UniProtKB/TrEMBL annotation:
This is Salivary secreted peptide. It comes from the Eukaryota. Keywords: Signal. Residues 1-16 form the signal peptide. InterPro entries: MBF2 (IPR031734).
Length: 121
């Protein structure tokens, strides 16, 4: 967990001006504010299925759980080295809300491999 947090923090330093070599499929929304805490962090992986576009939904907080922290930053980092397609999409809530739902989609015949983090206070 400490290693994942360190990786996230180093990636978050670049939010205002993402590097030109930012991995495709990476999404950074919002800004990291002083006092923010890690509200949610999860490594999401699904093995590829030939000819299929995979979809995985991520919800913070989990269904039927109430949290009152406001989200300031959502970071979805692609772990795929041979990224050819696929992408994350916020489908509900997000920055300024107390919840977020994210759809992760793979490329055709590709895996889902993302690190998802939500920060707020």
């Amino acid at each position: 967990m400490l290693v994942l947090t360190a990786l996230f923090c180093s990636a978050l330093l670049l939010i205002d001006e993402p590097p030109p070599d930012k991995p495709k499929g990476t999404m950074l929304v919002g800004e990291h504010k002083k006092g923010d805490q890690v509200l949610f962090m999860m490594d999401i992986r699904k093995k590829a299925t030939e000819g299929v576009i995979l979809t995985q939904y991520v919800h913070y907080p989990p269904p039927n759980v109430f949290r009152n922290q406001t989200i300031n930053l959502i970071a979805v980092l692609s772990n795929s080295k041979n990224f050819k397609g696929g992408y994350p999409t916020i489908i509900s809530g997000g920055v300024g809300f107390t919840h977020v739902s994210i759809r992760l989609q793979s490329e055709k015949s590709g895996p889902i491999d993302y690190l998802v983090g939500v920060y707020g206070q």
